[in-house]
Structure formats: structure tokens, C-alpha cells
Design goal:
With 463 residues, the chain is an all-alpha fold. It contains 20 helices and two strands. A hairpin with a 2-residue loop joins strand 1 and strand 2. It is globular.
Length: 463
């Protein structure tokens, strides 16, 4: 009982969720809360007496390698090009799982979130281009396309039982497709001058990674070593280096070394051996036979699990609780000049991004979902209605991590516009999060109340 009393509200909300994505949702929710705190801390620091030190720290050059083969970048670039590759690696593992065995594996089940995500990517672009039809600000068109899954799930989780379980699954599937779209946009439209020699090296490395997969290699070390080579090649090629994380993730095996039947057979015999050697000596420190068999048992447990899912679980901790918070601290530090706030919020870049994330996401997600159902391509889950879809469409406008990342690429040579873009993302994310939460809070009944009503109606009809 005491443990439950000290459980955070956003964790309580998921105690009742029955979904294959349970663990994923728990982690993303906690990550979203941490992300909010880091973004707030960055804003405070950037508008305090520590502002100059903050920006100076990000511009310090850091060099790795040996003479003749070195990489020198600022701390800010190491975070955005290096650490974020880990984030993209985890995103890639999530994408692969969802496509192969998750919510996107069944075409009939996947069509609704896929169409909603497409609407949520296409319509915001038109809103942005309405305010930025030409010039270098045109390059920011990809910024309002993205939805931040951690932020959105964190806001949705706070509603607890007021939202149906299937709404959480719908949001996860939508955000996963959204991430895939953002990755494709970065790869196709936000690349620098191509270095074909480095690109060829990257393709060769990718071929070797695929060969490891097809050859039945299940240990992570060879993939990690070749992954580093792939990252360097992508960095030198002009294609954004973080995409190496996506490519590496898709080469990680999704099939375990042992099938469950073989595992059960081998582990059954091993358990009997453990019992026998334990009777001779109970202390595992003294009993070498016991220790070796326990080790073999642990190895077997690892081998019966898919390497991609093992890595996704292990890498999510550093990605969600280290990489993303650091990215937030390094990129959300926006100096706010209150005297010129009026000109900031009316700047075409800020207005375009805000309109795209708030109005564009709402119309795109809800509109495409409505069309998909009306055309008979898919149906809403039995416990969802379009009020729920509108709420999720509003929350889809929370575009923090990926939107800021694309802004860094689109306005790398235009610091003033980059500042406007980040400001627009923050304003839009707050508006989208608050409005989505309020909409669902006041329009959605609690799932327990709905279930009670249905049960009562059922009993009355029986009578």
C-alpha cells in the first residue's frame, strides 16, 4: 500500500494499461517529465546571469582521435551530431519492432494511425509555407511536421482513467509513423554537399552489418564497432550523421538465437543440474559448478530474447534519461527579450511554426482520421470516438525534440531565424499540450464510469 501511495500520477495512470507497449509507454512518460524540467532549466539559465557562460560552454571545441585522424567539433555539435545518434538508434529499434510485431504489423489495424500521421505531417507544412513561401525561411518547412512522443505521452498519461486504453496505443503508433516521416525528411531534404567517397564507405559498412545479421551473429559488439564506422562515414558524407543510428538499428537481428522450445528443453536439464550441485555446496562463491551453471542459465535467458528488443530496453535508459535531457539543456536555452516579444511572436518563422503545430496538426490528424473512417478504409476502436481523436490531434502539436532538431539543420546559418524557430516550437508545444489536456479532461468520461454505465445498461436490457 505504501508503495502505491508514493507512485507518481503519471505512473498510476498506466497501472491499468494492458498493451504490448506497456514498458515503452512507462519509460516515455517519465522521460517526458524529465524533458520538461530540462527545457525549463535551459530557459532559466539562458535568461540569467549565467547566460554567457552557458553559450560559451556550448561553443568549446572538443577533439577526439589521433594525429592525422581527428574529429573536432563544438560541444553543441557533439551533442546534436553524436549523442543524438543514440536517440535515433533507439527510435530505429522502436520503428523496427512496431513494423514487424507491433501496432503497425497488421495493415488493417495500422491504417488509421498511419493516415492520421500522414495528415499530421502534410497539413502543417502548408500552414508554415503560407507565412514563409520563399527565401531562406522556406527551409524551415519540415519543423512543424514532428510530434514529440515523450512530451505527448506524458501529457496524456496525466489524464489517467479519463482516456481509454486504446487512445494511448493510437498515439504511440501515430508518433512512431511521425518519427519515420521526420527521419525521411532529414535524409532527403536536410543534407549538405555529398562526399561520395564517404558515402560509398557508409554503404559498404551497411552491407557488412546486413551480412552479420544474415550470418546469424547475435552478439552486439560487432554491430557496435561497425556502427561507429558507419557514423563517421555518414558524418563525413554530408548526410546527417544521426541517421547512422536508424540504419544501424534496422540491421540488428529481430530473431533470437534460441527458439522457446529449444530454450525450455535446455534450461529444464540445466535446472536439474543446478539442484544437484547445490545440494553438495550451498554457497555459490565456493561452488564453482553452481556458479558456472547459473552463468549458463543467464546466457540462455539472453539468447532466447531478440537482440533488437534487448538493445531497445537497455539503450532506452541512456537515451531517455541522459541524451534527450542533455539535448534539451543544450538547445532549449532561448534568450527572451520581453521588450521585443511582440515582434518575436509575429515573426513569420515563429508564426508559421506555431500555426503548423497547433492548427496544422489538429486539422491534419483529426481530418485524415475522419476521412479514413468515412471512406471505409478503417474503423475507430470500439472505445474511441472523434472527441478522443481531436484531443490527440491537439497533443500532436507538441513537437519539441525532433522539431528543434530539424530547426538546427534548416537554420544552421541563420541564428536569428533559428531563435525564432525555437521560440515558435516552445510556444506551440505549450499551447498544444494545454489545449489537448483541457479538451480531453472536459470532454472525455472516465473509463471506469463508462464501463459502469455499459454494465448497468446491459443488466437493464437483460431484465
Amino acid at each position: 500500500m505504501k508503495g502505491k501511495e508514493h507512485t507518481a500520477p503519471w505512473e498510476k495512470a498506466f497501472d491499468r494499461v494492458l498493451s504490448p507497449l506497456d514498458e515503452f509507454i512507462h519509460r516515455q512518460t517519465t522521460s517526458g517529465v524529465l524533458l520538461m524540467l530540462c527545457a525549463l532549466a535551459a530557459l532559466i539559465i539562458a535568461n540569467s546571469q549565467w547566460s554567457e557562460a552557458y553559450h560559451h560552454l556550448l561553443e568549446i571545441t572538443f577533439t577526439i582521435g589521433v594525429e592525422g585522424f581527428q574529429l573536432s567539433k563544438s560541444v553543441h555539435h557533439w551533442i546534436n551530431d553524436g549523442l543524438m545518434a543514440v536517440f535515433f538508434f533507439v527510435i530505429g529499434l522502436e520503428l523496427k519492432r512496431e513494423i514487424l510485431v507491433g501496432e503497425l504489423a497488421d495493415p488493417k489495424q495500422a491504417i488509421l494511425p498511419i493516415m492520421a500521421a500522414m495528415g499530421g505531417m502534410i497539413v502543417p507544412v502548408f500552414f508554415y509555407l503560407a507565412f514563409n513561401p520563399e527565401g531562406h525561411t522556406f527551409d524551415g518547412w519540415g519543423i512543424p511536421m514532428a510530434t514529440d512522443i515523450a512530451f505527448a505521452l506524458g501529457a496524456l498519461a496525466l489524464l489517467g482513467s479519463r482516456v481509454p486504453k486504446s487512445l494511448l496505443t493510437f498515439l504511440v503508433a501515430l508518433a512512431i509513423v511521425d518519427d519515420l516521416g521526420a527521419v525521411m525528411v532529414i535524409a532527403l531534404f536536410y543534407t549538405e554537399t555529398i562526399n561520395f567517397t564517404a558515402l560509398v564507405i557508409g554503404f559498404i559498412t551497411l552491407f557488412l552489418l546486413v551480412a552479420l545479421n544474415l550470418g546469424g551473429i547475435r552478439r552486439p559488439l560487432p554491430y557496435v564497432l561497425l556502427g561507429v564506422v558507419l557514423w563517421i562515414a555518414m558524418l563525413k558524407s554530408g548526410v546527417h550523421a544521426t541517421l547512422a543510428g536508424i540504419f544501424l538499428a534496422f540491421t540488428i537481428p529481430m530473431r533470437p538465437k534460441y527458439d522457446p522450445a529449444r530454450f525450455l528443453s535446455q534450461m529444464g536439464g540445466l535446472i536439474e543440474q543446478i539442484k544437484q550441485v547445490y545440494e553438495r555446496e550451498e554457497s555459490i562463491i565456493k561452488n564453482h559448478e553452481l556458479r558456472s551453471r547459473v552463468q549458463a542459465l543467464g546466457d540462455g535467458v539472453q539468447m532466447v530474447q531478440a537482440p533488437a528488443q534487448l538493445l531497445e530496453r537497455k539503450m532506452h535508459l541512456p537515451s531517455a534519461y541522459l541524451v534527450i535531457p542533455i539535448f534539451s539543456l543544450a538547445n532549449a536555452g532561448i534568450p527572451i527579450d520581453w521588450s521585443s516579444l511582440g515582434s518575436i511572436v509575429t515573426h513569420p518563422v515563429a508564426v508559421g511554426i506555431t500555426a503548423g503545430l497547433v492548427a496544422g496538426k489538429l486539422i491534419g490528424i483529426a481530418g485524415f482520421a475522419w476521412l479514413t473512417v468515412k471512406l471505409g478504409l478503417s474503423t475507430l476502436p470500439h472505445d474511441l470516438n472523434f472527441k478522443h481523436i481531436v484531443g490527440v490531434a491537439l497533443m500532436g502539436g507538441i513537437g519539441f525534440t525532433m522539431s528543434i532538431f530539424i530547426a538546427e539543420l534548416g537554420f544552421a546559418h541563420h541564428p536569428e531565424d533559428l531563435l525564432m524557430a525555437k521560440t515558435g516550437v516552445l510556444i506551440a508545444s505549450v499551447i498544444a499540450g494545454v489545449s489537448g489536456f483541457a479538451w480531453l479532461y472536459f470532454t472525455a468520461e472516465t473509463t471506469e464510469a463508462t464501463a459502469t454505465t455499459e454494465n448497468t445498461e446491459g443488466r437493464d436490457s437483460d431484465q
